[in-house]
Write a structure and sequence with these properties.
It is built from 3 helices and 56 strands. With 818 residues, the protein is mainly β. A hairpin with a 2-residue loop joins strand 47 and strand 48.
Length: 818
Amino acid sequence: MKKYKLMIICMLFAVNAWSTVPQAERDALVALYNSTNGVNWTDNTNWLVGDPCDNNWIGVSCENNSVTKLLLQQKNLVGYIPNEIGDLTNLTWLNLTVNSLNGNIPTELGNLVNLDRLELWSNTLTGTIPVSIGNLTELTNLALESNQLSGVIPTELGDLTNLTYLRLDNNLLTGSIPSSLGNLNSLENLSLYENQLIGVIPASLGNLTQLKYLFLNQNQLTGNIPPALGGLSNLKTLYLWGNQLTGTIPNSLGNLSLIESLSLSRNQLSGSIPEEIGNLSQLRLLILNENQLTGNIPPELGGLSNLTSLSLWGNQLTGTIPSSLGNLSLIESLSLSRNQLSGSIPEEIGNLSQLEYLYLNENQLSGSIPISFGNLSQLIQLDLVANQLSGTIPAQLGNLSQLQYLLLSVNQLSGTIPKEIGNLSQLQYLFLSLNQFSGTIPEEIGSLSQLTRLYLSANQLTGSIPPTIGNLSQLTDMSLSRNQLTGEIPVELGNLNLLSGLYLYSNNLSGEVPLTFSNLTNLAISDLRFNALYSNNQTLNDFINARPCNSDIAFCTEDWQYTQTQSPANIQVIASSDDSISLQWNEAVYQAHGQYQIMMAENPAGPFTQVYETNSKNEIVYTQGGLNPNQTYHFKLTTDTDPHVYNANLVTSNDSATISEVTDGSATTTNLELILSNVQQTPAQMIALESNVLQANNLVDISYNLQISNHSSESLTGVYFIHLLPDDLINATWICGNATNGANCLMANGSGDINHLLDFPANSSMTYTIMGQSDVIDAGGLIIVANVVAPDGYSDINIESNRVNANLDVIFANSFEE
């Protein structure tokens, strides 16, 4: 019997060991454990062991045998909050933040009437905010941010008059901001940003006199900024950016004497910046960018002595930059870009010794870059792009040892690039494109070891590419295009292993592309168009062709050498006599308008003298007369391409190989003549296409005759007749006829270029009639060139009559089809 009584006593003791907490509360905790995969919490110490309080379940605190705090933040709770949570009626603090909770917030949370702090932020909770939370009148802290909550903000939250901290930001909440929130007289932090809230900002928020932080940014709020917000005398931060607010900035915001951060950017605010903003002596951040603000920048802003960031970019501000901004001794970032500011940049900006970021780009600023900018020792980024600045780059900018971005493109800057730029050891971006810089590229640029982008295009730079550029081991993009650079591509360029974009087009670079070019294995775009470069290495040519410029750009789909001005190939002597030598060469591949220069010397080492310049690249024959018998003469040729729409430079190729020939001791005299006649053109109505280009509404028919005559008593066998059809004559055909005195056409008709060997009996002739069409009319003329050359051993008494060189008035502008 005693044994039985002892057993009963032990059982009762065992029950009492975990029964000090009410069963309902323990069951609620067990339900939370089970619904959130408690087995896999990062820390579940003592859970489910005996009494939650007596056994110190991790995160559970108790008073008077009841659970009062449940703090399980960052414990890897995965699952949902069970309805039983509402049975913890004495709970004062519930913190389940930074877990993976999903599902709805249980309505039963409204039973926790003693709750002081409810923190569920940074989970994936969905559904609406329960209206029942409005019952929690003791609540001082409600943090539901960074979930996926939807629906409207319950007006009942306005009943939580003890609330000091309300964060609902970074959810999917819709609807308007309840005006009842204006009842929260104790509120210090109201954060509703990054939702989908609409409607106006309630004027009642101006009643929250204890408010220190108001975040309504990144919603879809409309209407005006309530002037009543100017009554929030304790406010330190006001973020309304990223909405659709309209109207003006209320002057009353100038009353926020304690405010430190004011951001109204990315709205549709208009009107001027109130000068009263200059009263905000504690202000550190003033962010008003991307609105429609007009008028001048108030000089009063220069009195904001604590300001570290001023962002006014992307508005319609006009007038000059106030020199008073030079008083902002603590400012680190100043952005006034993308406005309509004019006048010069105040020298006083150079007083801002703490300035790290200066953005004045995309305005209408004029004058020179202040020398005082060389004093901005902390400057990291300087952006003056797209203004009307003139003068030179101050050498003092070379003092900016922290500078990483120097962006000066699209101005009217001139003079040379100062060598002091090479002192900027931290520089990553150097943008000087679209200015009027002249002189050479300083070799000191090769000292910029951190440089990743170098843009010097569209200037008037001359000289060669400095080999020191090969030291820029971090370079990924380089554009030197549209300058007047000459010389060869330096071998050292092949050291730029990270280079992905290389733009050298529209210069006057010449010579052979170095084999080291193929070391640029990261190269994606190689734009070498419109120079005088060449390569005979097929592997290298394949490498360059595999990295073309954008296919939407003219000639980028062609072989890379197609637009290179190269010296004539396959030069040969086709006839000679005692006083003349006739040369022929291959037509240049690149047919933009230009010419060949023929140079002659009596010594292979020179000096060579230019003896003739063709009128077109279609003229590929030249006869030099007036020579001495039995003498050696040496010839070499170059090719020019005239300035055109794609390159403002006259581009000249390297010299060709030299060819030598000895004149005969004697020769037979003859007299050939080539005449252009019967040129016909159908009328065409003309419309303006662009400057110096006219385009016909319909194709214009063109025809002309070339008559070849042998006026001598000698029969000639093997007379050269060479006529390359004008490039802009399309659908061209020809016929040969009107032969006299036994002359015979080699072919009666045909199409394409004519390169015939003809026989002419004494005093005979024949005529070629060329027919075709063109569709652009230009004062430059359609160029017709043709040549006849007497057979070897014959000396023509009038060499000038052996060629035709004439212009018509139908041609594509600059030899380019638009």
